[in-house]
Amino acid sequence: MRSLKIMDGCKGTQVYALNPSGPTSTTGAGAGTGAGSGGGGGGVGDKLLHHLQDHLRVNSIRSKSNRTFQAPTPLPNNALTENLLPYGLPSADLLEPLIEPGLKSVDFVETLADLYRRIENCPQFEKWKMYMEQCAVFRGVSDPKLFRRSLRSARQHAVDVHTKIVLAAWLRFERREDELFGTSAMDCCKRNIECPKAALVSGYNPESVYESCVCSRTGLEEAEDEFLMREDECSTSEEDGDISFCIGDEEIRCIRCNIASLSRPFRAMLYGGFTESRREKINFSKNGISAEGMRAAEIFSRTKRLDSFDVRIVLELLSLANRFCCEELKSACDAHLASLICDMENAMLLMEYGLEETAYLLVAACLQVFLRELPSSMHNPMTMRFFCSSEARERLAMVGHASFVLYYFMSQIAMEENMKSNTTVMLLERLGECATESWQKQLAFHQLGVVMLERKEYKDAQHYFEAAVDAGHIYSLVGVARAKFKRGHKYSAYKQMNSLISDYTPVGWMYQERALYCVGKEKMMDLNTTTELDPTLCFPYKYRAVSLLEENMVGAAISEINKIIGFKVSPDCLELRAWLLIALEDYEGALRDVRALLTLDPSYMMFHGKMHSDHLVELLRPLVPQLSQADCWMQLYDRWSSVDDIGSLAVVHHMLANDPGKSLLRFRQSLLLLRLNCQKAAMRSLRLARNHSSSEHERLVYEGWILYDTGHREEALSKAEESISVQRSFEAFFLKAYALADSSLDPESSKYVIQLLEEALRCPSDGLRKGQALNNLGSVYVDCDKLDLAADCYMNALNIKHTRAHQGLARVYHMKNQRKAAYDEMTKLIEKARNNASAYEKRSEYCDRDMAKSDLTTATQLDPLRTYPYRYRAAVLMDDHKEKEAIAELSKPIAFKPDLQLLHLRAAFYESMNDYVSTIRDCEAALCLDSSHADTLELYNKAKEHVNE
């Protein structure tokens, strides 16, 4: 099935500081594998050609937005080989891990449990605030679905217009709809939860987010309104009017009681003790309103409508309403002007009026356009004027539009755009000024510390990190230590981290940070402990790899970095492996990794930001065999069938370089990225596939996948059906079948999914996708207990090199009680697949306990993020009445991956041991991840009953 694991593993930042004078020699590990690897001899960093070095120096600092590079003048292969590393090799002494910019807890499970309790017990009007705190906690978690779900819940429970517009815009930004051609910022996605008009309606109505969005009124309604407006807007006749307002040479005839009804000041003026109450004509020339504006006020006093007036007149009425405290008129003007805001030009023009006249809805509508135009609007010069300064925040606050959630959203985008910019600093300072709750202060101060550290303003960084610690954020002690270290206080930094390890239950990042302030064996021991406690942290692997490189053990260095690339792909790790492969003169492997890296991050700068990755591709290309598009397709089939996802990504990147508008290839790219748990990059590829679609039915399919992958299953089905109505295609039928199969299928639904997959297989497609469809069809047949039909599907898939079908065939054999045949199928998959952790895991189901234990140990070594091996081992220990060991087995992965199933199982173990307090805590943490998980809810309620008794 199409992978649904969506770990955002694509946020790589170069942390390799370069030491140009460092070691440049390499091991003599044989000649390179590329076509140009022969001849030239010598090390890769010690024979720099002067003219190439000059060329690289000129082009070393490039803007991220400049993504096109000219290939250098062709040089002999040996000259290029010797100059691929003009900036030397990385130095272990200068490596440094990033400090994570979000909230990080020393006891994540307790944090989740506490959040769940508070969300459940808080008043309904306060729930959105709790969900925002949950957003902040989930921001640093590898699964972006959790963050988006919390953001949707916050929007669902929002009460006021300001919060609604911010959260609706944030949800839109998370889908990056701004990158879709032909879409406008104010386009409605037909869902109330993100609708720009629905966001401007105040009030608490959490059920409304499930309703269909009604953005436009029907033609009949508009016609009726226009008719009523014409009927009501005739001027007051001389007979009706009993008072005139004189403005210049003009008289505006009005009905005294109607004007008096506009406000108390008007009533006092016209019916009180003032001279105007006894006059039929009142001089109104010095009250800042034109005759035309006063006529409009007269019409409003009768009709309560503003529809026929142009913007200038409504703005006059708004000013009049403020001057004479006409609340109804002000509200009407505010709402009318807000309804006119549809683009950035209008928004920027009327924002100033809204702030001057304290028009809440008008400012909200202007603010909404700005927020829905992010990130591009971040570069608008008006940004500084309206948002960044303390004075700007105060002006927004006066009209009810300065909030923590606003500056949280804007500051996150600013940090993504440019961590070191003044705009980022100022927005974070405003965030701190808006912070009132403990978690808000922790986040604002910690992020200011991270930014100041990036800007090399170490004294300020230490100040902000210490403020975050004072607010309760223990992780900020890492920032305090790092800032001290940068200021030359290495021993103080070491003591800081040593004390942290002593005071709390140690976790991986504590040892990782302390390792920076150690040397020799002590440093390596801390890094090894880091990996034992949290194998997902990249820095220890990178440090060990570079240390091995410095000892001229390039092969061992590559093996070390391969360990983490095998289960967690990130640009910085691919960069380091490419670096090492160049040192090993494996140019084909290096080119593969750089191409894969560019797929994850097209703007990535290599060699400590000195060379654009595209440029290194151009330098490496002459050193490897040149492939035609047909050759690339053959390679893609081979690598896809060997489950070599990184190799497949590289081939697709090569093919797209020759044919950048090929949407089918972009879609292939997205599938591979999802399999590698790189959802952010996968979604970018899907958007590009949609943008380059050559037909309407194809565009609809890709829009459907985008919706499906962002949690909108019903809308995805609708897109698939619309595509099929335009043209029957493999991908449209496949999307529909896949989305339907996502839910638990009854027999009737299973039959329909089978029909859809069969229809897909009748449509033209290539072997890669047909193999996928056959594999999925086999899975549905197995669920329907049609094992022979399933076996046929899997065999047909294997015939077209869909290697993963071995797993399905093994399942069929197992269900037929042919365990040996099932075991053999999985062995074939292990032998063929490059990434085979899942194959070892599945094979364990078809062998005895000892062999299963061995396979699961291998699976964990290859991919420690897979949870089944831990659960299996824990269950075996519980069966052997080794409760403490079973709990420890589950606690190990929970420390770095608080998974729902792991938490539920540990809660069940605690319950069997009569430890109901621990059961409740783990259940609450699990329910924080998924509040609808039925088994956990049942266990939770049962444990609470025991505690109450």
UniProtKB/TrEMBL annotation:
Residues 29-44 have a biased composition (Gly residues). InterPro entries: BTB/POZ_dom (IPR000210), ETO1-like (IPR044631), SKP1/BTB/POZ_sf (IPR011333), TPR-like_helical_dom_sf (IPR011990), TPR_rpt (IPR019734). Pathway: Protein modification; protein ubiquitination. Residues 241-341 form the BTB domain. GO terms for biological process: negative regulation of ethylene-activated signaling pathway. Gene3D superfamilies: Potassium Channel Kv1.1, Chain A, Tetratricopeptide repeat domain. Keywords: Coiled coil, TPR repeat, Transferase. Residues 816-843 form a coiled coil. One of its GO terms (molecular function) is transferase activity. TPR repeats lie at residues 771-804. Residues 18-44 are annotated as: Disordered. SMART domains: BTB, TPR. PROSITE patterns: TPR. PANTHER family: ETHYLENE-OVERPRODUCTION PROTEIN 1, ETO1-RELATED. This is N-terminal acetyltransferase A, auxiliary subunit.
